[in-house]
Amino acid sequence: MASTTDVGTRPGPGPGVDTGTTQPRRRRPFSVKRLPGFATVAILCFVMLYAPIFTLVVYSFNDGTSIAIWEGFSWRWYEAAWANEQVKEASVRSVVIASFASLIATTVATMAALATTRSRNFKGQTAVYAMINQPLMVPEIVTGVALLIFFALIKVATGYTGLAYLVAAHTAFCIPFAYLPIRARLESMDLSLETAAADLYATPWMAFRRITLPLLWPGILAGLMLAFVISLDDVVITEFVKSAGQDTLPTYMLGQLRRVVTPEMNAISTVFFSISVALVTVFFFLSRRRR
Amino acid sequence: MAIGEATSDSQAEGTGVEPAASGAGEGAGEAAHRQAVRRKWLLLAPALAILVFAASGPLLIVLVYSFLSPGPYGGVEWAFSTEGWFRVFFTRDIFDDTVGPADAHLSIFWRSVQLSVLTTLLAFLFGFPTAYFIATRERNREVWLFLITIPFWTNLLIRTFAIMEVIRNEGIINTALIALGLIEQPIQILFTDFSILLGMTYVYLPLMVLPLYASMDKIDFRLVEAAYDLYATRWQALRRVIFPLVKPGVIAGSILVFIPSLGAYVTPRVLGGGKNLMVGNLIELQFGQGRNWPLGAALSITLLVIVMVALILYVRNASRSGAEHG
User: Fold this and answer.
1) Which of A158-187 are b and which e, b meaning 16 or more Cβ less than 10 Å from the residue's Cβ?
2) ipTM over the 0.85 cut-off
3) Contacts of B59 in chain A (CB under 8 A)
């Protein structure tokens, strides 16, 4: 059907005829898309983006303490980082917070996405979108300060100083990151399957469980992954919200950067970087599949 | 491509019929509609509750705190005062109470704006060709895009640290230059304004490239071809055809770089070495050693207002250019 309509419309004085006559005349090396110098700048950009990270990774394997003179390969900085109790504690804390925050954020973001997509405009829609995207618009430092003040009040009132504050803060700024891919997925989904399920006497819950959820799953996983990475990476808000002794890996690293830095930091960064890359790669393939 | 558009069009038409059909059965339709609205808000409730609790609500408290008096050891005393706001813009001499402009604060704000504008410009100068390069690849476009995405999702602190390692006095650049005999003493790059600028450009470059790419991906190159057919030079084609087409992407990218640059905290702290402050560090200082929470709150609100003004200008501009092209 598709090809016949295509052929049917073409034989007129359309663009098909045009390209047919111009192609042989056009000199091959001239490309409409080429702009001189752009490729050079682009390659330079990629080199600039990766050279510092590459250097960081290479010198994490350096046998000496230098970050510029190569003294042979060794795992010593990885061993040092592994033996460092503070690093271990901070890493575990980071993962715990990121797990809770991303799971909660993804759950509520999925619900919010189901409520806001595939329906006509509703009262308060603009306000809802503004609320959901608010963490993306307000500078992190301002949110950090706001939470510092607010949570200080609660801490005084209740006496509780646990990890829940950090989880709450992380959940809030993870919501838009979880929401966006889920919403994108929902919008590209075919409504007819759900309608068919309803026609076949499925209850709304069954239609959701058996049709919507499986179709939405890649979007949910992508949102979860992004939320996890975003939570894992956060420095500023954590720095303001954390109580004493609640360092996450990034805030621990920030504290260390004030002192003399050894390649142990390179080793920690390399591991951290590898985890992020792995997660982003999975996300990349998840969002690419079945588009 | 065209077929996909056609089906999505027909889908849109299909949903468009719906309200008319439901309008036919008055009472039942009304009740169902009300139930649907209620369900919608129930689904939204948990997300909104968390956001009010840990994102929007606390901002109001900041506003309240900016009108209180500072406590002696940080925190506040619950007494109304405009001193915090006064101190954002003015200083009062300790001895004779003469009022002058708060040069320290104003210069830090001004410096932050300058650095952010420069960062945005640099990111544009490097990001535009890069985005164009990716958008015009025939093959492997996804791979190039992926290469831009990786730094975007890599921890900002790690990237800042990576830049710091490269430019510090014992770093690889200075070591190489000395080894080559080009310089005798290491060049002090770290802890200067330049290092902040370099670091922020490095860190925020992907935020410029991604929206630029998104709009370049949609360029209809027949228009560019038409320009060349009409004897346009490369520069004219770029300036008069390509640039207007990707203008929404340029604006989006600029705003995405400008806003986090203005509120930057980590990059100036690590690369500025505590001497070269930006607004973010000034705010933090009031909550730390400065022990002046109301002033810190007032500075935060000021920063927020500047960001909001930039965002509103952007939205206005975007909708206007959208109207032009539509």
Assistant:
1) eeeeeeebbbbbbbbbbbbbbbbbbbbbbe
2) no
3) 138, 142-143, 146
B273-288 as b/e: b if 16+ CB within 10 A: eeebbbbbbbbbbbbe
Q: Which residue has the tokens 């409730």?
A: B45
A112 near A104, Cβ under 8 Å? Answer: no
Residue B266 included in any domain: yes
Task: For B143, name the nearest residue in chain A, comparing CA atoms only.
Answer: A284
Tell whether the torsion through CA atoms of A193, A197, A203 and A209 is positive or negative: negative
> Of the candidates B75, B129, B142, which has its C-beta nearest A41's C-beta?
B129
Strand positions, DSSP E, chain A = none
Q: pTM of this prediction?
A: 0.83
Q: Which of B8, B44, B271 to mutate to test the interface with A (most CBs of A within 10 A)?
A: B44
The tokens describing B193, both together, are 């304004």
| B174 shares a domain with B41 | no
Give yes or no: residues B50 and B174 share one domain: no
- Of A169, A183, A176, nearest in space to A101 by CA: A169
Residue of A280 and A131 predicted with greater confidence: A131
Mean pLDDT value of segment B252-258: 90
Domains of chain A: 34-74 (no CATH), 86-288 (1.10.3720.10)
Q: Judge: A142–B300 Cβ closer than 8 Å, yes or no.
A: yes
| Res A169: pLDDT | 96
Q: How far is CA A166 from CA A43, A99, A114, A256, B61, in A?
A: 40, 12, 27, 21, 18
Distance CA(A243)–CA(A155), nearest Å, equals 10
> What pLDDT score does B317 carry?
75
Q: Which of A220, A128, A108 is nearest to B37 (CA)?
A: A128
Q: Does B314 touch chain A (CB under 8 A)?
A: no
What's the structural domain count of chain B? 2
